[in-house]
Amino acid sequence: MKYGSALRPYTLKRLEEIEKADVVVGIPCYNNERTIAHVMRMVSHGLHDYYRDMRPLIVISDGGSTDDTRDVAKEFQLKPWQEKLVSIYRGRGGKGTALRMIFEAARAVGAKACMVVDSDLRSITNLWVKNLLAPVIDHGCDFVAPIYNRYKYDGTITNNIVYNLCQAVYGKKVRQPIGGDFAFSRDLVHFYMEQDVWDTDVARFGIDIWLTVRAITENFSICQAHLGTKIHDAKDPSEHLGPMFRQVVSTLFQLMEESEPYWRSISGVAQVPTFGEPGAESPDPVEVNFEKLVGSFKFGLEHFGTLWKEIFCDDCYDALCAAASMDSARFRLPMDTWVRVLYELAGTYHNWPANRRRLIDLMTPLYYGRVASFINETRNMDSGQAEAVVEEQAELFVEAKDYLLATWDNPKVCSETFQHGAENL
């Protein structure tokens, strides 16, 4: 359904009453009654401690929670002179529409800066407000991405896919391109609002990577801010991350197609300005069903192996078969194989004439396999040591960009037989 605004009539009326705000902090939420008050408290304290001379507005953008999230948010008492807006957004479900409502509110009140934080955070402190907003307010940055201390098995989509592709393709070392906690300048908010994306599938799980990539490719000033440890409702990748994985990866591949003139000639990777100091607190462990990850990979080869053989080069396919023959304790999907697999998938997606969702479905077991391999590689490491493995993998992606270009221009597959096989999955 097409719609002109994510703001409901009573929300628009409330914004007219507020009239003006210098800073907007948005909190997208859905069924977060246990954590929403803590997030609001830290945001309110941070605005009071660091931006008391500015007029702030806190926007709770709710996706129709069936618990008491909105009631808790409405009853929470902010610091003096702070305004609050609690509303169900209007439009299709997903984080993208929640952000659209926040951006519309920021534009309506003429905010100089806008910040968004996730609603399930348990580690947020008042300092996060300063760390995210200061680069925009004090240093003129347009886009601020977070850097966290995270447990080694938290953020597996970022660590094994998004971080690698972002810096290899776009040449910018942004550690958490889909971190969820960002800050934006007024100019960037206005740019986002003018883009024809808000009625598309991107405006769901894919919105974070879209925000990051568009800021890069439109040459806005980007930076990062240390936020310390991230403790949130982390998800076991074997159980809960399949839909998010599919949406993020399809959005990434779409963005690569749209921005090809920007990235084709980029080589190497550039550091971006980074503000703040890393935190020292150790993150909470994340439980992962390792056996299910390995089993899902082997199931993928059993059911999709014929198509994998058509997609991938012989060396990659042989490596996938070798991994599937290993028992769990020895399971490995080597980094160099993973680099080529992901690049070959990007090239196939680029040249795939139809039904691309099926291609992403084919890829999901490969992601499970790489996560399982990473677990075995880092099983006896702490999170800091595992981070070095993440960086080693990212460097391989950067060094192999010519391979991406080769597969992008000359994919192995596009035969009618292969297409027919994929359509019947």
Q: Which properties best describe this structure?
A:
2 domains; 10 strands; alpha/beta; 18 helices; Spore Coat Polysaccharide Biosynthesis Protein SpsA, Chain A; two-stranded parallel ribbon; 425 residues
Residue runs with pLDDT of under 50 for 5 or more positions: 413-425
Computed Rg: 22 Å
Shape category? globular
Helix-strand makeup class: alpha/beta
What is the CATH first-level class name of the largest domain?
Answer: Alpha Beta
* Name of the CATH superfamily of the largest domain: Spore Coat Polysaccharide Biosynthesis Protein SpsA, Chain A
**Using DSSP, what is the number of strands?**
10
Oligomer: single chain
- The helix content, as a percent range, equals 40-55%
Describe what this molecule looks like in 3D.
It is a single chain. With 425 residues, the chain is of the alpha/beta class. The longest helix is centred in the C-terminal third of the chain and has 23 residues. The C terminus is likely disordered. Helices cover 52% and strands 12% of the residues. It folds into two domains: 267 residues, Spore Coat Polysaccharide Biosynthesis Protein SpsA, Chain A (Alpha-Beta Complex), CATH 3.90.550; 134 residues, no CATH class. The protein is built from 18 helices and ten strands. The radius of gyration is 22 Å and the shape is globular. Strands 3-2-1-4-7-5-8-10 form an eight-stranded mixed β-sheet, with helices on both faces. Helix 10 packs across helix 15, helix 12 packs antiparallel against helix 13 and helix 13 packs across helix 14.
Per-chain topology:
Blueprint: H1 9-18, E1 23-29, H2 36-50, E2 56-62, H3 69-75, E3 83-88, H4 95-108, E4 113-116, H5 126-137, E5 143-149, H6 156-170, E6 172-173, E7 182-185, H7 186-193, H8 207-217, E8 222-229, H9 237-240, H10 242-258, H11 260-263, E9 270-271, E10 274-275, H12 290-311, H13 314-324, H14 335-350, H15 356-378, H16 383-399, H17 401-409, H18 416-423
Parallel strand pairs: 1-2, 1-4, 2-3, 5-8, 6-9, 8-10
Antiparallel strand pairs: 4-7, 5-7
